[in-house]
Write a structure and sequence with these properties.
alpha+beta, two-stranded parallel ribbon, 4 helices, 32% helix, globular
């Protein structure tokens, strides 16, 4: 969760209008999302527009597309690795989405 914290804090600190930012964290389950929010909130400014999006309804589709586990690197078969390809479905009512992975630092 530390990488997520860095991404959010760097975005907030490097924008002129942080109140316009909305952060949506894509997680594998609602329970995982609740744990993540509980870990992050004490380290973030208040108020912040922060919510969790459960990716589990899309996981079966991703798993079906992945097929077998032919790689020695099991982390490659995590369905969240492919969440960015489903942003248009996850956020169909939103006009613009900027995907920020946990290894990103926003610099103004």
């Amino acid at each position: 969760w530390q990488g997520t914290l860095v991404v959010i804090n760097s975005a907030i600190r490097n924008t002129a209008t942080p109140d316009r930012l909305q952060f949506r964290l894509v997680t594998q389950s609602a329970a995982e999302g609740d744990r993540l929010l509980a870990s992050l909130r004490p380290h973030l400014p208040d108020p912040i527009d922060l919510a969790v999006v459960d990716f589990s309804p899309w996981a079966p589709r991703v798993s079906q597309l992945l097929g077998g586990n032919s790689s020695l690197r099991k982390e490659l078969f995590n369905s969240l690795n492919f969440a960015a390809f489903y942003l248009n479905e996850l956020f169909s009512s939103v006009g613009r989405v900027l995907y920020l992975d946990t290894d990103v630092v926003v610099v103004g």
